[in-house]
Design brief:
Elements: H1 2-31, H2 52-56, H3 64-87, E1 94-97, E2 105-108, H4 109-121, E3 126-135, E4 140-148, H5 154-173, E5 180-186
Parallel strand pairs: 4-5
Antiparallel strand pairs: 1-2, 3-4
Helix pairs in contact: 4-5
C-alpha cells in the first residue's frame, strides 16, 4: 500500500508540475510579445485565456451545469480520498503462523501489536511504547516508537527490545525474522538544579 501510494503521489505531482510548467510557459511566451505560430493558444500580451464567447458558449445547454457540477464534485472527492490516504497507514490485520501441519494458524494483528507494546513498555527505562504492524500476512514488519525516561540508555533499550519483545514475538509466531524500524525519543523534563 505504501509503495503504491508513493508511486501515485509521484505520478500526480509530476503531471501537475508538467501541466503548470507548460501552461505557465505558454502564457509567459505570449505575454512577452514573442512572434508566435498560428496554432499557439494565445496570440499576444493583450489576449485573454478564455474569451467572453468561449466562456458563455455552453451556458444555454441543459446538460452543461450538471456536467460541470459532477466533474467538480468528482475532483473534490478524489482530492479528499488522496488527502485521507496520506495520513492513513496500512496496518496488518492478521499474521499467518506456521504450525507445521501445512494448515497454519492466524493471529490477529492487533493482539500481536498489544503484546509487543506491553513487552516493550515493561523494559527498564521505557516510559511508553507504540507498535504498528505492517507488511504482508506471511512476512510482517513492525514500526516501534519508544519514549525513553531521561536516565535510559538508547543502546540498552534497543538491545532489550530486540532480545525480549521482538524475540518473544518471533518465537511465539514461528517467524524466521521480524524486520523492525525503531524510533526513540526522550521524555521532556526540566533540568535539575545542583546546589
Amino acid at each position: 500500500m505504501t509503495r503504491v501510494l508513493r508511486r501515485v503521489n509521484r505520478i500526480v505531482l509530476a503531471l501537475a508540475g508538467l501541466l503548470l510548467v507548460v501552461g505557465g510557459g505558454a502564457a509567459l511566451v505570449a505575454g512577452l510579445g514573442v512572434s508566435l505560430p498560428s496554432w499557439w493558444p494565445w496570440s499576444g500580451p493583450d489576449d485573454v485565456v478564455l474569451s467572453r464567447a468561449e466562456r458563455q458558449h455552453w451556458r444555454a445547454e441543459g446538460w452543461w451545469w450538471p456536467v460541470v457540477i459532477a466533474v467538480l464534485g468528482l475532483v473534490v472527492l478524489l482530492s479528499l480520498w488522496w488527502l485521507i490516504a496520506q495520513f492513513r497507514r496500512a496496518r496488518l490485520r492478521e499474521v499467518v503462523v506456521d504450525t507445521g501441519d501445512g494448515e497454519g494458524a492466524v493471529v490477529h494483528g492487533r493482539t500481536l501489536q498489544d503484546v509487543l507494546e506491553a513487552d516493550a513498555a515493561a523494559q527498564e527505562g521505557v516510559a511508553r511504547a507504540r507498535v504498528a504492524l505492517t507488511g504482508r500476512r506471511t512476512a510482517p514488519r513492525t514500526r516501534v516508537a519508544l519514549l525513553l525516561e531521561p536516565y535510559a540508555s538508547p543502546a540498552a533499550a534497543l538491545t532489550a527490545l530486540a532480545d525480549t519483545a521482538l524475540g518473544n514475538a518471533r518465537t511465539s509466531t514461528g517467524l524466521p525474522a521480524l524486520p523492525t524500524e525503531a524510533r526513540l525519543r526522550a521524555v521532556k523534563h526540566r533540568a535539575r538544579r545542583v546546589a
